[in-house]
Design goal:
The chain is of the alpha+beta class. 28% of the residues lie in helices and 28% in strands. It folds into two domains: 215 residues, FAD/NAD(P)-binding domain, CATH 3.50.50; 154 residues, D-Amino Acid Oxidase, Chain A, domain 2 (2-Layer Sandwich), CATH 3.30.9. Helix 1 packs parallel to helix 7. It binds flavin-adenine dinucleotide. The site of flavin-adenine dinucleotide has 38 residues, from helix 1, strand 2, helix 2, strand 12 and strand 17.
């Protein structure tokens, strides 16, 4: 084994939202006195999903663990100024609890209804609306082909994702976490445990535990320790456009077609700025990036016209008059088994902690995942919110935790 340059109790591979949340939670835990090193290959985060995200948070999931994670997440985001202040300077993330509005026709109505019951049972503030109630609350909405909608009255909305990442990172550093620019080449294992993290420059950091928070690169990195995870990089677009008409109280709307939109920032001279897109409806429609970083500028405007603008203008007739703006592409680290995150110790390599496959909801899950992994690393199990449903075991045994509400 080449000379070990240094050692740390925990090495976190990837320092965006998830890696920085884990680092912060570890350093902030009064029971942890060790050293944390975060290895991040690109401190500009240019291609990181955390920087390219739509940065929204919802409670409207179909599995209890995801609802609980987001209930914790919204509480954390509401208190972020106090929790992540450094030297009396409180971060702001412009949290706007505008709600999500999921819409359904006849076919989707039973799913929305069942989801809403589960969400309410878990304590999420989600209302169920028939078409008349939808029209009353959102007069600008075309409800003629709708059977129902579910709306997050509180606890859902959007925020500044870049500010969240920077707040985690700044707070972690203030608590003694070391950020190192470098690219992790592989995990060095001995006897079924990670003993060091090797960088592409050949240097090694010996460690007691390692965290894989490398986003779309998670599968390759886990593979160097002999751990298989079905995580792929999938391309997603975000388009912006302005609309002159006022859409009072417009939430993050998800149409029956999968097209979605939400307001962004305050109304200006050009009208209200919106962002929106559409998730490919079948996995076959997904575009896979293999071993390459996405090009942020690689945007398909035909996709906007066909899959976003047309369905949204049907749902919100005022959108017939929109003016398209800028757009970008970003990567989802998609879990191929069930579109849910893989969180916790790797089966077969128990001191390698996985935080991968967030499938489009990692930013909102970063507070709960950071806290959960910290508990697992320090105590060998979860102490507050049990994240075992997201564990690696379901991957190894092929038991998916199906999530019905994907965007
Ligand atoms: C278009 C889009 C919209 C989204 N909208 C939402 C949303 O509304 N709400 C939500 O919650 N989530 C959303 N997401 C998902 C969310 O952004 C991600 O799940 C989350 O940011 C994942 O964070 P991460 O830290 O795991 O990964 P990333 O942000 O991708 O960060 C991974 C980091 O690891 C580093 N890295 C990779 N390999 C190595 C290596 N070998 N060595 C060292 N460093 C390495 C990278 O440089 C990067 O900084 C969206 C994503 C996209 C693309």
């Amino acid at each position: 084994m080449p000379p070990v340059s240094e050692s740390a109790d925990v090495v976190v591979c990837g320092g965006a939202a998830i890696g920085s949340s884990v680092a912060y939670h570890l350093a902030a835990d009064p029971g942890f006195k060790g050293k944390v090193v975060v290895v991040e290959k690109d401190p500009t985060y240019r291609y990181a999903a955390s920087a390219l995200s739509a940065a929204s948070i919802r409670q409207q999931y179909s599995s209890a663990v995801n609802i609980r994670i987001s209930l914790y997440g919204i509480g954390f985001l509401r208190q972020i100024g106090a929790l992540l202040a450094v030297d009396g300077e409180a971060p702001t993330i412009d949290l706007h609890e505008g709600g999500y509005l999921y819409l359904a026709g006849e076919a989707g109505a039973p799913i929305l209804s069942a989801n809403q019951k589960l969400q309410a049972q878990e304590g999420a503030d989600i209302a169920f609306y028939d078409p008349a109630a939808l029209k009353q609350r959102f007069p600008w909405l075309n409800v003629e082909d709708l059977s129902c909608g579910t709306f997050g009255v509180s606890g859902e909305g959007w925020f500044d994702g870049w500010a969240l990442l920077q707040a985690f990172r700044k707070k972690a550093r203030s608590l003694g976490v070391e950020y190192r620019q470098g690219e992790v080449a592989r995990y060095v294992t001995e006897g079924g445990r990670v003993v060091a993290v090797e960088l592409t420059d050949g240097s090694r950091i010996a460690c007691g535990a390692a965290v894989n928070a490398s986003g779309t690169h998670g599968a390759r990195l886990a593979g160097t320790a002999g751990v298989a995870i079905p995580v792929k990089s999938m391309k997603r677009y975000v388009f912006s456009f302005t609309c002159k008409s006022e859409l009072e109280g417009c939430p993050l709307l998800i149409d029956t077609t999968g097209a979605w939109c939400r307001a962004e920032g305050k109304r200006g001279a050009e009208g209200q700025l919106f962002i929106g897109s559409c998730s490919p409806l079948t996995p076959e429609q997904d575009i896979e990036w293999v071993e390459t970083d996405p090009t942020v500028e690689d945007v398909d405007w035909d996709f906007f016209e066909e899959a976003v603008w047309v369905p949204l203008a049907h749902r919100i007739p005022a959108f017939e008059q929109i003016k398209p703006g800028r757009a970008w592409a970003g990567p989802y680290d998609m879990c191929g088994l069930d579109h849910n995150a893989i969180v916790g110790p790797a089966i077969g390599v128990p001191n390698l902690y996985l935080a991968n496959g967030f499938s489009g909801h990692g930013l909102q899950q970063s507070p709960a995942v950071g806290r959960g992994l910290t508990e697992h690393i320090l105590h060998g199990g979860y102490r507050t919110l049990d994240l075992a449903d997201l564990g690696h075991e379901r991957i190894v045994t092929g038991r998916p935790l199906k999530e019905a509400n994907i965007i």
